[in-house]
Amino acid sequence: MPIDAYILLLLTTVGLAALLPARGTGAEVASGASTVAIAFLFFLYGARLSTREALAGLKHWRLHTTVLACTFVVFPLLGLAARGLEPVFLTHDLYTGLLFLTLVPSTIQSSIAFTSMARGNVPAAICAGSFSSLVGIVVTPLLAATLLGGTGGGFSLDSLVQIVLQLLVPFLAGQVLRRWIGAFVTRHKKVLGLVDRGSILLVVYTAFSEGVVQGIWHQVSPARLGGLLVVEAVLLAVMLALTWYGGKALGFDREDRITIQFAGSKKSLAAGLPMASVLFGAQASLAVLPLMLFHQMQLMVCAVIAKRRSQDPVTRSGADAGATAQDPSPITAGTATPSG
């Protein structure tokens, strides 16, 4: 089972923050740079999203509604149900991070890559991932304010205003300017993909530096981390089963069920990290730990599932045609691995 190279970079960044955390003036500079990087990241998201493709994808509204329901309804309900595991399996901070994990949007690149590998409905996966990311910019902060407001997450009206100014406004600016800069973004998608990843690494370094300086890592024991991994494995298994068999119960064909399973069972590290940095502040390091672990777990498990699905007999030729769709990720185009 593959280990995402980008996850290794993230872990290296965490190690660097543990050994050489940003302090004093350095912390202020890192925080300011992180704020600018997040805004630029979402500006690029907006510049990459093809509004025309997104609107065209609305024709398959039943599938997209199902994926959105899995991402923003079923996942959060399971997260709320996990509250009973506190404090036996999870500390309060780890549970807060787990609940936040269930609120972030789905991935794009990895959902499309695995859907293509399994010979599913790739065009639908493109639209489903795009819709999830777009909706998540607004819905995730609102869900977080509602569900985490009383758990010490630090959510307030100021947090929501920060989300609007730091995430939504740059995203909308990218959409508005797409007419003039869209071609440039497409031509330089590989370079800009490196900018994406570099921005996220900076966010991780800043968040974990703050955590190290405040000593919050002493609150997490190996036993607690082991308990978190078990809980996340169960969460992933439940969502993979619900999306696959639920899609069958709703009457979707094999290709659409594959799309629903891969798009509806994942959570985006690229979208979740910047949001957590804005919403949690100094507590962001523990808040994103469950998301980082879940992200690697979903890649490993879904890689195995996609390989097995690729060996299934195909009854509709459209799946193979869809698998050859070009520029499979309108938002995260240019990334080298399915780490969305």
Topology, please?
Elements: H1 5-19, H2 24-48, H3 51-56, H4 61-81, H5 92-101, H6 109-117, H7 122-147, H8 157-187, H9 189-214, H10 222-249, H11 254-264, H12 269-280, H13 284-309, H14 318-322
Helix pairs in contact: 1-9, 2-8, 2-9, 4-7, 4-10, 4-11, 5-13, 6-7, 6-11, 6-13, 7-8, 7-11, 9-12, 10-11, 10-13, 12-13
Can you count the beta strands? 0
Please report the distance between the alpha carbons of the first and last residues.
18 Å
| Computed structural class | mainly alpha
Total helices: the number is 14
The residue fraction in helices comes out at over 70%
Question: SSE order in H/E notation?
Answer: HHHHHHHHHHHHHH
In percent, how much strand structure appears in the residues? under 5%
Runs in which pLDDT lies below 50 for 5 or more consecutive residues are 316-339
Average residue pLDDT = 80
Rg computed from alpha carbons, rounded to a whole number of angstroms: 19 Å
How would you sum up the global shape? Answer: globular
